[in-house]
UniProtKB/TrEMBL annotation:
The active site is at 207 (proton acceptor). It comes from Meripilus lineatus. It is found in: Glycosome. This is Glycerol-3-phosphate dehydrogenase [NAD(+)]. It catalyses: sn-glycerol 3-phosphate + NAD(+) = dihydroxyacetone phosphate + NADH + H(+).
Amino acid sequence: MSLVHKEPCGISKVLVFGAGNFGSCLADHLADSSHDVVVWSRSPEIVQHLNESHRNPEFLQDHVFPDSLKAVGPEFPSTELIRQMDVLLFAIPTEGVRENLKLLTPKLDESNLPLLIFVNKGIEIGTHALTLDIIADTCGPKIAKVATFISGPSFAKEIVRRQPTSVSVASLSDEAAQKASDLFHQPWFRCYTGGDPIGVELAGALKNVYAIAAGVADGLNFENNTRAMLITRGLAEMTRIGTAYGASPLTFLTLAGVGDLFLTCSSPTSRNYTVGHRLGKGEKLDHILDTLGSVAEGVWTTKGLKKIIDDLGVTAPIATAVYEVLYEVDYRQTGGRKSEVIAFAAANQGAGSAVSGETSPEANEKVGIGCLTIRMPRLKMSIFSLAA
Ligand SMILES: NC(=O)c1ccc[n+]([C@@H]2O[C@H](COP(=O)([O-])OP(=O)(O)OC[C@H]3O[C@@H](n4cnc5c(N)ncnc54)[C@H](O)[C@@H]3O)[C@@H](O)[C@H]2O)c1
Ligand SMILES: O=P(O)(O)OC[C@H](O)CO
């Protein structure tokens, strides 16, 4: 396939916050699309290498970045730089968003706001907040209304190799969503508007939890049938949670929903899948996180999600099981050998539909839920399955 480089509709000045895998990747893409791009990193080494050798020493190490891409840091960007920007793009993990928005807010010119884009996929620990709530808390409702969320199946290392990629973009402001879509528009990278911000955000955060589940199942040597079951029932589950939260169920059928769920649950390129796979092989969570070298948002999101599930009273056996695997089994005591519960619940949700989110505990009860327990040499795993 030949991908012809297309000039963007207009040149924008873009400041990318975060020079990890995805921040670097998007900065690369935008600079290569002739935008004026500056990337901010807290790491002096990354700033120096990007400016001098056009390489990132920690992330996407094989990639050579465009000469036009400038890096700044480690200090937080100045008011002067921020006010020159048309676009501020946040590509840092959800846990870092609040502290950075607190630093940013006093530097913004409220009468001339830039486009704010967020690509993180997570739920904040402690507050269980989505990013839209964090923005409203720190920057106020005016800025939250124009904040834009991009999410979808998008491995950074494939985008830098110009693999055709499409994602969803959503904002409370249609104009902001369209601007963000236009910014990225290239034959190899498309943003599709549609979906609501809450749904796009939740889908991006939740798919990481189901990717951990799929990774554990694969790590335990379950095969394709089991993964397909987890993906399908994971979609039903995330749709139910999202609908109860106030999102449109249809958002979960977009690139941000089923698209990203499918990608992340089926590839070892995913850090979340990898965490699950290594857990399935019996490694301890602390060790996995110490050696992963990059963020796996699902590990923290699972905590916030558990609280949301409990508060909403939604049936979410897979997410609940992932929570138990991550936080209720003490691997330090068991050495990963005789865990009390390594439970995966791909629950039968009766006649409920993934689209309508109609499934209910009553529906489950009606058809009955059976429990198949599989004993592995090192791990015990329960899969709830259809009894009928
Ligand atoms: N990697 C991908 O393919 C991909 C794709 C889509 C979305 N995302 C999402 O983008 C976000 C970032 O992911 P990533 O892959 O770039 O992660 P990463 O671990 O590769 O990099 C994260 C970067 O953020 C910086 N950072 C962390 N906490 C910070 C803070 N408090 N303040 C400032 N900087 C901070 C780190 O120093 C690092 O440079 C995550 O939410 C992830 O889910 C990643
Ligand atoms: O590596 P993961 O699991 O964080 O997934 C990266 C992206 O979210 C895939 O779209």
